[in-house]
Amino acid sequence: MNTLIKNSIMLLFVVVVLTSCNYEETLQGYYVNNQEAPNFISIDIPTSFVNIDKATLSKEQKEAYESIDKLNMLGYMLTDDNVEEYKTELVKVQNILKDEKYEELFRAGNSSVGKIVVKYIGTDTSIDELIIFGSANGKGFAIIRVLGNNMEPAKLMLLGDVIKNASPDETNVKDFMDFFQLGK
Asked: Residue 141's domain spans which residues?
């Protein structure tokens, strides 16, 4: 009888632990769940895929570029037929990004054109993941996850002009980049 009580208490403990776990959706989970869903566009790009002339990079730009492993991009295209679904998906992403593990780097844009927020996971000197989330009125929203090792925020900012002038090797990457430019 003693064993039955112990087993029952153990089972109750396991059930309590499992049901009290936090099952909130993560950004990675959101990507996985929606990468092939209707109205979404998803692209994973290793940094070697973006044509950047490394010879023209400064030492800091080269270090920043080499600290990046890949980019994950997920966009939701807004149409006349999916306005309510768009609003639901937008709220889901905004709620995920409210998690305190995401530190805000900056915000830009306005309510008439669209907004961008840049967040990161890591410290002020070493970023593990950089998240760029933008919504363009009338177009949809996009999330870009920049994944790497020991990415330094100050050095990453130096890559902005270089990336603007880079030529992507594939048409759908260019389409994604065009989609993400607010107000165009």
From this structure: 25-180
